[in-house]
Each structure stands twice: as C-alpha cells, then as structure tokens.
Write a structure and sequence with these properties.
Helix 1 crosses helix 5. With 211 residues, the protein is of the alpha/beta class. The protein folds into two domains: 121 residues, Response regulator (Rossmann fold, 3-Layer(aba) Sandwich); 76 residues, Orthogonal Bundle (Arc Repressor Mutant, subunit A), CATH 1.10.10.10. A five-stranded parallel β-sheet has the order 2-1-3-4-5, sandwiched between helices. The longest helix has 15 residues. Helix content is 53%, strand content 13%. It is globular.
Length: 211
C-alpha cells in the first residue's frame, strides 16, 4: 500500500481527493488537512510515501511546506496540486524539492496514475517547467564543477532527455531502447549524482554543466 497525506484548503476538493484515494485498492489515506502549519510533526507521525500538496494555502504555503519536509527527508515523493502548470509558483515548488505536479482539473482521472508514476521514478513535469528550470540555472552565478560522476555516453543522453522534460516512454522511443532500460539508466544516474528525484538530477546536471 502507498500511504498518502493530503494538504488542500478547499474543503470540497480535499474531500474529493480523499475519496479517490480511499476508493483506490493500493492507496492508503493517512490524513487530509486544510493547512500545512504542522506538517513537520504530521510527517514524522504518519511517515507517508507520497504527499499531495496544494500550492496556495492559508498559513504557510505549499512551497514553504515542501522546504520543511525536505529538511528532514529527501526521499518522500511530493506532488503539487495546482490550477496552472506553467507559472513561477510551480517552478519555485519544484526547485524547493517537489517531485512534480498535477493540474487540479485532471485530478479525477489522473491522480492514481500520477502517484504510481512518481513512485516509479517518473515524476510529472512538463517541458515548459523543465525549460524554466534550465533558464533559471543558466542565469545563476554558480561556478560549474568538473564531471566526476563517471556518467556513460548513454547516461548523458538520458540525462539530457530528462532535462527536456521527456517521459520514460518518450525517451525509450527517441533512443530506440526499452522502457526498462531507460529506468535502469535513470536509476544509475540518480546513484552517480547522489540525488533522489528527476528535479534534483536536472538541477544538478544544468548547474554543473553535465548536459
């Protein structure tokens, strides 16, 4: 079972998402809250596998909530719930450590798939957001470091595809390899870069000019 916490201040939407999770045979609702002020304590108590996080909430917003979780845990999957996909708030959330995001209008038909995607290491992130991350990294003044990660030519290709926001299926088709092969290369990339998510891998790759 995949344990979830939900943070959403809209009562109706929070109830709808809770019901979707409850009706899914392999998802377990651990808690649903209208605010994230106590997220550190709630996270420690429930130990979820996935957090569904609204961006705009009273009290601390979703971006700050992601930062608080990442201070104590780098591996839990955090999916942002948002109305618009190509905006600064989504970018800020991903840069803070969110795994990806899901448009609220797609929750009813895509939520279980999005959760399974993120668990499988394929977090949802549009090409538009990937481009915004790349643009932001190119504008930073961070000094690049040498590539000491022993990445193979194929792994560099996969990493480049990841930086463009490509899905595992798209990468497999573009590179004429199997989906399992892409997943294996992606896992190896994460291990070599010492990261846990696609966002962290892309950020590190662009920041250190690996792609």
């Amino acid at each position: 079972m995949i344990g979830l916490l939900i943070y959403e201040d809209n009562d109706s939407l929070r109830d709808s998402v809770s019901n979707l999770v409850t009706l899914s045979k392999d998802l377990l609702l651990l808690g649903a809250f209208p605010r994230a002020d106590q997220i550190a304590d709630q996270f420690a108590h429930f130990q979820p596998d996935v957090i569904l996080m609204d961006i705009e909430m009273p009290g601390i917003n979703g971006i700050e909530a992601v930062k608080r979780v990442r201070r104590v845990d780098k591996k839990v999957h955090i999916i942002m719930l948002t109305v618009f996909d190509d905006n600064q708030h989504v970018l800020d959330a991903i840069c803070a450590g969110a795994s990806g995001y899901l448009l609220k209008k797609h929750i009813s038909d895509r939520l279980p798939d999005a959760i399974h995607q993120v668990i499988a290491g394929e977090p949802p992130m549009s090409p538009g957001i990937a481009r915004m991350i790349i643009s932001g990294m190119h504008q930073s003044q961070t000094t690049p470091t040498p590539n000491d990660y022993k990445l193979s030519t194929r792994e560099i290709e996969i990493l480049t595809q990841l930086s463009k926001g490509k899905s595992i299926k798209q990468m497999a088709a573009d590179l004429s390899i199997s989906i399992d092969t892409v997943r294996t290369h992606t896992k190896n990339i994460y291990e070599k870069l010492q990261v846990h998510t696609q966002t962290e891998a892309v950020s590190k790759a662009i920041n250190e000019k690996l792609v």
